[in-house]
Amino acid sequence: MRAMNETGTVELALLPAPGEEQYPSLALANSAIALPGGQFIDLLGTPAAANQWLVDHGLAPADAGVREMCAAQLRSLREQVRTLLASRVAALPAIPAAVAAINDAMTRVPTAPLLQWDEKNGPYRATPHPTTEIVDHALATLAADTADLLTSAEAERLTACGSTPCNRYLLRHGRRHWCSTRCGDRARAARAYARRTQPTADDRTK
Questions:
Q1: What sign has the CA pseudo-torsion 41, 45, 49, 53?
Q2: Which uninterrupted H or E stretch holds 60?
Q3: 3-class secondary structure for 187-204?
Q4: Residue 129 gets which letter from DSSP?
Q5: Phi, psi at residue 160, to the nearest 5°?
Q6: Could you give the CA distance from residue 104 to residue 98 in angstroms, rounded to a whole number?
Q7: What does the alpha-carbon distance between residue 32 and residue 25 come to, in Å, rounded to a whole number?
Q8: pTM of the complete model
């Protein structure tokens, strides 16, 4: 993953967070990335970017031709997935609308050509537009993967990255609460700085 820095040059950004390669829904949740300095990367921000993200995760062919409507559906599902992950991490009840959105995505994909009715020619069977069909199947796959993650034993390891301003989720290993070495280094540096600048007892009594 690469991003533009403040000088306009390309720099290496974050590697996949732990768990993303196993759960594409986790990668979807992490496709909107907050970086230090107020930077923000949206890997689904344009139709071309969304198309590439689907290709990179084996959910669409390179020539899928994703348009803005489909990219918007993918971004909408991402927000619902993030809502559910946040609820799970905080041990709070899930927002019903988020659960409904996941279930809707899982059940939206038709298993057969649907019945259509033309005023002039009457009834006929037809499949959806190829691109729409591809995206619907991708949404269904990601929704089902979200359900698998949240109901698996590994959901106990689900956590949010502990390094501000990072907004990514991960499956922690041991006590690690950082999504990357970069975030871990930043969190340790912040703690060290806080210790150095914290007034001592002698300072407080002066």
A1: positive
A2: none
A3: HHHHHHHHHHHCCCHHHH
A4: P
A5: -95, 145
A6: 10
A7: 13
A8: 0.81
CA 128 to mean position of chain CA atoms: 26
Q: Are 104 and 86 in contact (CB under 8 A)?
A: no
Q: Which residue from 73, 80, 78 is spatially nearest to 108, judged by alpha carbons?
A: 73
CA–CA separation, 94 vs 103, rounded Å? 13
Helix (H) or strand (E) holding 84: helix 68-89
Torsion 29-94-140-177 (CA) sign: positive
Which residue in this structure is represented by tokens 């991708």? 138
Residue at token pair 């002698």: 202
Pairing of strands 2-4, 39-42: unpaired
**Per-residue pLDDT of the chain in tens (206 residues, 90 and over written 9):** 444 443 333 334 568 999 999 999 999 999 999 888 888 899 999 999 999 999 999 999 999 999 999 999 999 999 999 999 999 999 999 999 999 999 999 998 877 778 889 888 899 888 777 888 899 999 999 999 999 999 999 999 999 998 889 999 999 988 778 898 888 777 576 666 566 777 655 555 55
Which tokens is 165 given? 């301003």
Domains and CATH numbers, the chain: 17-196 (1.10.3300.10)
User: What would the two tokens of residue 81 be?
Assistant: 């997935």
